[in-house]
Recover the amino acids of this structure.
């Protein structure tokens, strides 16, 4: 049986760009990024268990300007994935699937993820003092 | 006419003996991770810039230790289920796809065991 040259169903190229499709793939991209974030969390915890010297290495890396940029990226990805996950759970109940509702909930997820990330960093800077 | 046996229908598994379990477990870990993630972010804010002694003292308390272990197990489980679907969607070379799924599953198991051990070592005063 040949399956190689069967026609494909309509794919990415024929659709006009919509924000909802960007948010859909962004859920997967942020999820993949968060898998990298789990490596940092694992390193942080194992270093804490290993002792002060190992912990200082991770701690200093996170506190560097480079570490802070990475941490902000992960924080935003975490909130985006979390809020969009809640959006998916609402969809799983059959609600909010029409286009205007999906657009509005998408914008709420984007706005919420930015606000919560900024609030998290503001809180962190207040606690740490620098 | 439904040719399935009553028990087959009750189990909800098709001929692949698989059903919706992967999707369902993925959703269950999501539901658990919603409160756990908010708690984790809140805790990380309160520990911003904290030295080793303070971090270890926090992990060593019963509630943070238990919640951390729940967060870790749910996160790594959620992670490997998700990455499996990503690999199934995008890797079209069968041996490479299977290898990638196995590597991620093993890696998530190693990371889960390693991090849970780290929490227990701190909490139980190693």
């Amino acid at each position: 049986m040949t399956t190689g040259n069967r026609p494909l169903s309509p794919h990415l190229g024929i659709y006009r760009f919509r924000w909802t499709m960007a948010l859909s793939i962004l859920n997967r991209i942020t999820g993949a990024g968060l898998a990298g974030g789990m490596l940092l969390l694992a390193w942080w915890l194992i270093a804490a268990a290993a002792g002060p010297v190992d912990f200082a290495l991770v701690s200093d890396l996170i506190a560097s300007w480079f570490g802070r940029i990475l941490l902000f990226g992960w924080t935003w990805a975490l909130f985006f994935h979390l809020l969009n996950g809640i959006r998916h759970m609402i969809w799983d109940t059959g609600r909010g699937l029409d286009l205007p509702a999906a657009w509005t909930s998408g914008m709420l997820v984007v706005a919420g993820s930015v606000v919560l990330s900024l609030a998290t960093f503001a809180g962190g800077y207040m606690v740490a003092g620098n | 006419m439904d040719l399935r046996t009553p028990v087959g229908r009750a189990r909800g598994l098709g001929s692949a003996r698989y059903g919706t379990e992967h999707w369902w477990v993925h959703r269950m870990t999501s539901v658990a991770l919603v409160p756990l993630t908010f708690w984790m972010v809140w805790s990380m804010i309160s520990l911003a810039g904290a030295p080793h002694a303070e971090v270890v003292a926090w992990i060593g308390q019963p509630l943070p230790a238990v919640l951390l272990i729940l967060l870790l197990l749910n996160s790594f489980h959620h992670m490997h289920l998700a990455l499996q679907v990503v690999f199934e969607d995008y890797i079209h070379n069968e041996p490479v796809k299977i290898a990638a799924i196995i590597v991620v599953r093993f890696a998530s198991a190693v990371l889960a065991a390693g991090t849970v051990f780290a929490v227990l070592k701190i909490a139980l005063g190693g």
